[in-house]
Amino acid sequence: MKWTLYGPDALLFHFADKLGDAAFAKGRAIVAELENHPPPGLTEFVPAFTTVLLEFDPKQVPDPVRIAPDLAARLEATAAAEIASAPIKDIPVVYDGPDLERVAQHNRLSIDGVIALHSATIYKVYMLGFSPGFPYLGDLDPRLHTPRWPSPRTRVPAGSIGIGGEHTGIYSVASPGGWNIIGHTALKILDPGRAKTEASEESMFYLRHGDRVRFVGVTVKSNP
Amino acid sequence: MTRVFEVLTPGLSASVQDQGRLGWRRFGVPASGAMDDHAAAWANRLLDNPPDAPVLELLLQGARLAVVEEAWIAVAGADAQANVPTWRIVRVRAGDQIHFPRERSGVWIYLAVEGGFEAERILGSASAYERGGLGRLLTPGDILCRKPDASFRLVPTVAGRSVAWSERRDYDSPPPLRVWPGPQWNCFSEHERESFFAQEWTVTSRSDRAGYRLTGIALKPQPSQIISEPVRVGSIQVPGNGQPIVIMRDGPTVGGYPKIGMVDPADVSWLAQCRPGAKVRFRIVG
Q: What's the domain count of chain A?
């Protein structure tokens, strides 16, 4: 497994060359290993699509380059191991976003076609980033790939479901954003309040790296 | 809890920060924490506070605080012509007002109180990360409290306690910032690397707690985009326009632009205090 030194106290490991089921399974296996058997001195790790960053306490690991080859071999072996399939979490979605038309036009589809394709895939949570708990979901049907807006909107509401290039994702907090918004969910992807009532602080994040997600279309009934 | 201050006005921006929210970047949560950890640490050290005691971070100028109850404080960091002595301990009394009228040098001001400020901890940290919905900026009328069990006792024979001049920084003349080659070092030709290290970069006004944008002779990495991968505080990303962005404490945890390098963690505090228009240079570590 390839690695690079990343600053004085961290290593970046490359466990795959491209996205897909194989990269996803490797990433999950590596994360499970780092959670269950962290190497000595590990302070934090950050998984992404095809790479994982490992940061070390400089007092315990003064020169990460020295441990890199052994660690690379260990992660390589870990990545090859079988791992139980990821849980699937349902996300209710109302397909009412302002950019449905843009996605449809770009891909020469009807709006119903966009909705059908988007909700037909079980997505992989490849990584969380951009904002707390924001999932980068793949693999998006190539017939839905749509470039981001050249100039981002100044405010995209929390719960917005968007398409950015070849990914789909869910805005966890209101923020500026350039993805094409095709719908929204009432589910709280990030809910700091949840951590106050449940045992684990992690419960504030609805999704974790390695989860799978299914969008379930719902229609909103207008008030009687 | 012991009340110490009422925020009359936060000025350009005011928040509580500590050493940051460590261990949550895999959930997309940046560490946050004091932009200039050097000045923040000195403010705490002057008062015998633990290093992770929350401090008040103020941007540039305009903040005004009313003292509610007598306390020892210490102000360090940027110079905004405060009406209290800085880089030393100061006893403030009920009815006093502390204000920071005019920015003069540096960007971020730190105010520590004996025992440290009381603040809600989210994911183990009191650092406000407003953009991410974790904590918020201070607003007029906010009451700031300190830990009541402050252990700080000024030795009576010591007239004062201050930071040695040699430890205070001249924010107007930062040293060349040390840079570690980044994961995409090889995306930059010899010529591009030379250009990066030879030129003087200007900090732009489009800089904030998430990132400092620099401007200079554009760099041209090949390829210009990569599969998104983890970024760190200090990572120097080069987007399509060739103008580098240095990731700061509230910055994203992942990104898809090539990174020529990473500012050494010990030098990020120097960059943090660079004002828009300031010139910075980089040098390779070693």
A: 2
